[in-house]
Design brief:
By secondary structure, the chain is an alpha+beta fold. It has a domain of 60 residues: SH3 type barrels, CATH 2.30.30. The protein has three helices and five strands; from the N terminus they run αβββββαα. The N and C termini lie far apart (88 Å).
């Protein structure tokens, strides 16, 4: 009975190391998929294009004409072409996107497309809870309210 906690602990350690090994193998397999021209994201969050793959290193083009040498282990994800183009170049595949387009400015929110943006003289005035100016002899305070007269 006293050995039961130790057996459970050893079993849990075995399962954790097995899970970690699977993650390492999946990461190594992902890094093996890198070929020149593939878009990647480093573990630091930088997006780049693979230019050359070595045994332990990879040369990335971080900007046009700017190359940097990275360790293969620093590659966090190998991206599909569509995802890389969407993130880096802002190229959207409209057929695959079901999300509505967001306007660049607020003019479409203040008027209809047929009439264009609403003009200031056409917009209804909003009551912001302001009271009218006090009349002569009236300071705007109710009877009994504190304040100088």
């Amino acid at each position: 009975m006293t050995f039961l906690p130790f057996i459970v602990l050893i079993g849990a350690m075995f399962l954790m190391t097995r899970s970690a090994k699977k993650k390492q193998q999946a990461a190594a397999q992902m890094r093996d998929q890198m070929t020149p021209g593939t878009g990647v994201r480093t573990i630091g969050g930088m997006y780049a294009t693979v230019k050359e793959v070595g045994d332990d290193t990879v040369t990335l083009e971080v900007a046009p004409g700017v190359h940097a040498l990275f360790a293969k282990n620093s590659i966090g994800a190998v991206l599909e072409d569509a995802e890389y183009n969407r993130i880096v170049h802002g190229i959207h595949d409209d057929a695959a996107s079901d999300t509505p387009a967001v306007p660049d400015d607020a003019s479409s929110l203040t008027g209809t497309p047929e009439t264009g943006p609403a003009k200031d003289d056409e917009a209804p005035k909003l009551d912001l809870g302001k009271k009218d100016e006090p009349k002569d002899g009236d300071d705007g305070k109710a009877d009994g309210e504190a304040g100088a007269k």
